[in-house]
Amino acid sequence: MITVSAIFFVYYLFISIRYYSGEIKDFFSGKQKQKFTPVLEASDKQYNLDVDETEDQLASFHNTFDDQLIQTKQLADRLKSVIADATSKRLIPQEFKQYLSMVLKEYPSIRYSPLQTSVNALIISECKKHGAAMLKEDEVELLWKEGL
Q: Is residue 57 part of a domain?
């Protein structure tokens, strides 16, 4: 095994020196830096990324997400007051659910955002806190759907 390994090592060393001596010297002297090119699996298509367009899209995404955060904060504050109000008025569960559904209808952009699960958790925890109708996750999902 050692002999075969030594023979392979010498063979590949000879091939490397014979055919790639210039590149090896440049690499070890620091003249040439390794260049990695991405491999794209596509059929004769060139992908050109416009840097300005990408930056605009990124800025647009950040603005949209910031708007959603602001709307989620407003919705959270509104839900807290609505649940507290409904508890003080002692609404029956069906009226309470309709009331929540109407509030959720005012924020359609949050319905399909990643922040919806946080809003759902807030609704459930506020209902428990105030002793309102005990809602489960699937019931809160139905409230979003009813609001559409």
A: no
In whole angstroms, what is the distance from residue 56 CA to residue 61 CA? Answer: 9
Closest by CA to 67, choosing from 26, 19, 13, 108, is: 108
Amino acid letter for position 52? D
| Cβ atoms of 133 and 93 closer than 8 Å | yes
For residue 1, the one-letter residue type is M
**Rounded to the nearest 10 degrees, what angle do helices 116-130 and 51-89 cross at?**
20
Q: In whole angstroms, give the CA distance from residue 69 to residue 113.
A: 10
Residue 77 lies in domain = 71-146
pTM for this entry:
0.53
Q: Does residue 83 belong to any structural domain of this protein?
A: yes
What are the C-alpha distances in Å from 58 to residues 29, 38, 46, 114, 115?
40, 22, 22, 18, 19
Q: What percent of the chain has pLDDT over 90?
A: 9
